[in-house]
Design a protein that fits this description.
Largest sheet of chain B: 6 strands, mixed
Distance between the termini of chain B: 37 Å
CATH topology of the largest domain in chain B: Rossmann fold
Largest sheet of chain A: 2 strands, antiparallel
Number of strands of chain A: 4
CATH class of the largest domain in chain B: Alpha Beta
Oligomer: heterodimer
Shape of chain B: globular
Distance between the termini of chain A: 55 Å
Strand order of the largest sheet of chain A: 1-2
CATH superfamily of the largest domain in chain B: P-loop containing nucleotide triphosphate hydrolases
Largest interface: A-B, 40 and 49 residues
Order of helices and strands of chain A: HHHHHHHHHHHHHHHEEEEHHHHHHHHH
Number of domains of chain B: 2
Strand content of chain B: 25-35%
Number of helices of chain B: 10
Radius of gyration of chain A: 27 Å
Helix content of chain B: 25-40%
Order of helices and strands of chain B: EEEHEEHEHHHHEHEHEEHH
Structural class of chain A: mainly alpha
Shape of chain A: globular
Chain lengths: 576, 235
């Protein structure tokens, strides 16, 4: 959001603006002590005097941040010392105010919709709205802060590790809380708050610092992320509803990571990727102990997984070998067609013409739970006094699978093969001229990615109990691609986040039913306009989206002539 | 070392190179001159295996080269710095050089060759972890040459290395080419800057619309009236 106010105006009004901003923030803080809503049905009951609801308590963090960011600099630059430049005080105060305004607007809209009209908004809500508008208007008049330098301050290792650990705990808590919100309004208000907090942290300079801390303590980060993910089922108290979503998210994420190799690293657009997941699922289904399984061969799951992965990657080779010589648009169309052919084939392998493999559109139901080393995944059990249900078992299994995928992915990414892949993505002809066997590497990516999807599909078959062709429609391929693009092509963290968002939102926004796709479309459009590199940017890709920097580089050409003496001082006597 | 016989190369149905024959002797710098569309870059692409031949033969160190896939050609010792540099712009200098050495398996040799490139172009060494796209045109050209050297080629083909560079930069690049020759690398140099190329070259070929019009030693071509009129300005 960019409102252009002349610098001299900003300088002239900087003290009144700060005062008004502080007043706005205080108004918002006070507002949570007043009721926001007339009826208790809207949101999480904001009808009390002096007793804020949980959502109101979350919300108040934003104005408190705004207040701190506005008030603390009043002590003067000398007192602030190095902190004066460490944080982007003014700019992030503006972001905090905007975020608070966003939350208030969503909350009031939810109250109005759920109770029938703005008449149901009580004074507290209006006070919050006025305060937010004041704070936003006032902070627009503050001079912009220079780029924050928090990441350049020295910080002790223990502090970095502690922050990472605390952050992970907060993440776990947030995920558990967000999942527990069943009401679409509650969820949206909380989502607005969460996005707001992230934006403020980014603006204030905390992300740069975190990035550095994360890079310095890479292992701590990965390990704590897994500990947190592992601990998640314990927050659910045996509730299957959320664990079902969570395990679906992980299956989806594993597939997206496979697609990430193809799209993110090699740059091949695959619009039919869901077929590989389906191939894995159908393979596992026909080899399972289900009464409807069509093949009388029931190997242990470890073997089934390998077969499922192999079948999927063979399909990848089958579709890749003739088509990977063409690239770009053609490949997208061919893969799109392949995805549909797969679905229709699965529909038609019902025995009416040819063999019965899939029972046609009714698919293969009654797939029994997994049994690995004598452990039945269908058995609920109690760990540390918490009920661990069926879905939690699958969740943990997928966590292990994803961990393995990530290890493989990271090793590939920084290996010779990974370099070859990225080279193909950037300039296939140049890569070929460098001696990269582009066709073989593309085929390898296709088959490898398909293998991962096949493995995920094998687990999915048991997780879902039944496998039908209609689970593998084009829309699912589109969602997978969206998860990769939204999260950040070529990154692991980004794709995991993207997959979580794209799987979680539809579950939580059932309220919007038919409009969900519209919402997604809008989300993607906004994302591509304002952050085309995705939520997490691949370091190698950053440049692609900041072309103006490159033009700058050519402008520096002239400087090079002076530079020239420096790199070849001893050679002389060559004339043209 | 390199022998091309009646080579015809086409884009689709249009012949870009219409039956040319030439040869490059070991240790020489051979240059190919010609205006846009004369078929110079097409020739280099065909030699690298990036374009198939319609007819004709390519022999390299006693073996047939036409029909060999591009990645195998690099293994045989031919490297190209393509027209327009075509660096991997998002990758670091170091990764670009590593890609140049993609066909090699000897890690220690790659490391020492990389150091050699950094010695030759210190600016690359100083900023080795920066993305190639952030460098200036001249620096990118250095990287493109360095990248091509990383496969330790016996024949290095450079496609217009002076394109878009300042005169001083061109001078540096040309000096580097002569140094590479001194190190025993054979060089096939495609240029529009005839003056610079011919003063280096042992032999020059002049291409026009897919044919070799004439060839001679570099010195003789520099003095040739037709060359002077067409490529050096008639003075």
């Amino acid at each position: 959001m960019r409102v252009v106010i002349p610098d001299e105006t900003k300088v002239r009004f900087r003290y009144p603006a700060r005062a008004v901003g502080i007043a706005g923030a205080v108004a918002m803080i006070v507002s949570i002590l007043l009721p926001w809503s007339y009826g208790s049905d809207a949101l999480d009951d904001m009808t009390f005097y002096g007793a804020p609801s949980p959502l109101q308590l979350f919300f108040v963090i934003l104005p408190v941040l705004a207040l701190l960011l506005l008030a603390v600099p009043l002590v003067g630059k000398q007192r602030l010392g190095r902190w004066a430049k460490a944080l982007a005080w003014n700019t992030s105060a503006k972001t905090a105010s905007l975020a608070a305004l966003g939350v208030v607007v969503v909350a009031l809209a939810a109250i109005a919709i759920e109770l029938g009209g703005l008449i149901n908004v009580e004074p507290g809500g209006w006070v919050a709205l006025v305060g937010a508008v004041l704070a936003v208007a006032a902070t627009l008049f503050l001079p912009d802060s220079p780029e924050p330098t928090l990441d350049r301050l020295k910080s002790p290792r223990w502090l970095q590790i502690t922050v990472i650990a605390v952050l992970m705990a907060v993440l776990l808590f947030t995920a558990a809380y967000a999942l527990s919100l069943d009401d679409a309004g509650d969820f949206l208000v909380f989502a607005a708050f969460a996005v707001g907090i992230v934006l403020v942290l980014r603006q204030v300079g905390a992300f740069a610092w975190l990035g550095l801390a994360a890079a310095n303590n890479n292992r701590v980060l990965v390990l704590s992320a897994f500990v947190v993910a592992f601990a998640f089922p314990f927050t659910q108290n045996g509730s299957d509803a959320n664990m079902s979503i969570a395990s679906q998210v992980l299956i989806f994420a594993a597939t997206a990571l496979g697609l990430n190799i193809v799209v993110g690293l090699v740059g091949l657009l695959d619009l039919g990727y869901i077929a590989f997941l389906g191939a894995g699922a159908f393979t596992a289904a026909v080899l399972s102990e289900s009464a409807f399984a069509t093949i009388d061969f029931h190997p242990p799951f470890i073997v089934t997984v390998l077969i499922a992965g192999t079948v999927a990657s063979l399909l990848g080779l089958l579709i890749g070998a003739p088509t990977l010589r063409v690239s770009g648009d053609y490949l997208a169309i061919v893969t799109l067609a392949f995805g549909e052919i797969f679905r229709i084939t699965m529909n038609n392998l019902d025995g009416s013409d040819g063999p019965n493999l899939t029972n046609g559109s009714s698919g293969i139901p009654g797939i029994p739970d997994l049994n690995l080393f004598g452990f039945d995944f269908g058995d609920p059990h109690v760990i540390l006094g918490v009920d661990i249900g069926r879905f939690a078992n699958y969740y943990w299994l997928m966590l292990v699978v994803i961990a393995m995928i990530i290890v493989v992915f990271m090793n590939l990414n920084y290996s010779r093969i990974g370099r070859g892949w990225v080279a193909i993505r950037e300039d296939e002809l140049a890569a070929e001229a460098m001696g990269v066997n582009t066709f073989a590497l593309k085929l390898l990516a296709f088959a490898g990615g398909a293998f991962l999807a096949g493995v995920a599909g094998a687990v999915k078959a048991h997780h879902d109990v039944s496998v039908t062709p209609e689970q593998y429609v084009f829309l699912e391929s589109a969602f997978l691609l969206a998860a990769v693009v939204l999260g950040g092509m070529g990154t692991v963290t980004g794709v995991l986040i993207g997959a979580t968002i794209l799987k979680l939102l539809p579950e939580k926004l059932r309220f919007f039913s038919d409009y969900r796709l519209l919402l997604f479309g809008l989300l993607m459009v906004f994302m591509m306009r304002f952050r085309p590199e995705g939520i997490i940017a691949d370091e190698r890709r950053q440049l692609e989206f900041h072309a103006e920097d490159e033009e700058l580089a050519t402008d520096v050409e002239e400087d090079l002539i002076t530079h020239h003496a420096h790199f070849n001082p001893e050679r002389k006597g060559f004339e043209l | 070392m390199l022998e091309v016989k009646d080579m015809v190369v086409a884009y689709g149905r249009v012949n870009a190179v219409k039956g040319i024959s030439f040869s490059v002797e070991k240790g020489q710098i051979v240059t190919m001159l010609g205006t846009n569309g004369a078929g110079k870059s097409t020739t280099l692409r065909a030699l690298s295996g990036l374009l198939p031949l319609v007819s004709g033969e390519i022999w390299f160190e006693g073996q047939r080269l036409d029909g060999v896939p591009a990645h195998k050609i690099v293994e045989r010792g031919i490297a190209q710095s393509p027209e327009g540099r075509r660096l991997f712009r998002q990758m670091s200098v170091e990764d670009n050089l590593k890609l140049g050495a993609f066909s090699r398996k000897d890690a220690s040799g790659v490391k020492s060759d990389m150091d050699r490139v950094y010695d030759l172009f210190p600016v690359l060494g100083e900023r080795r972890s920066e993305a190639a796209g952030l460098f200036s045109g001249g620096e990118q050209q250095m990287l493109a040459i360095g990248r091509a050297m990383m496969s330790r080629p016996t024949l290095l083909m450079l496609d217009e290395p002076s394109m878009g560079l300042s005169p001083i930069m061109t001078q540096t690049i040309m000096r580097t080419i002569r140094e590479l020759q001194a190190d025993g690398v054979t060089i096939l140099l495609v240029e529009q800057n005839a003056q610079a190329a011919l003063s280096l070259a042992d032999r020059g070929y002049v291409l026009e619309v897919g044919h070799i019009m004439f060839s001679d030693t570099g010195r003789n071509l520099l003095g040739d009236d037709r060359v002077r009129r067409t490529y050096l300005g008639a003075d």
